[in-house]
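Researcher: Please predict.
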Amino acid sequence: MAMDREQVLRDAAALLSRKSTATMDEVARAAGVGRATLHRHFAGRDALVRALEELGIQELETALARARLDEGGGADALRRLVAEAQPSADLLAFLYTENQLFEGDQVNAGWARLDARISDFFRQGQERGEFRIDLSPAWLTEALYALIGACAWAVMDGRVAKNDFSLMTAELILGGVRRSVET
């Protein structure tokens, strides 16, 4: 029976998002495969994390495409992006805190593409007068990632209802990013 690589990655992501220090043995058990099978596809934890990184980048790229950031106002586009990112939030939360992905010269170019697209979205919102101009687009991008991760962990811990994820994440960042109108 062939191993379903994507399902193994999703099972690994589900475990690692709850327990980032899980061993390869624990990952194999969670994925329902033998340790040897897991090692044939992923030479070790680093290879597994890099494969998860690729999956996370793909998922966030898909979320960006589905969110249609260039349609409508910035607030509605941001709400769509958060809603589209929610199914991958656990994986993104794990990846956001996985230091090995952001050390040295081996940083995946996919993150730079994603950062650029999201930062550009915030910059355009600033230019249209929708978003605050005293916060850099790069910082707003990091804040968005952090809020998605924080809400994902709160949902996993049962402190936030899954159905509240999109509302709570989007409205918190919008409350901080919106440009106030002075009268």
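Model: The chain has a mean pLDDT of 90.
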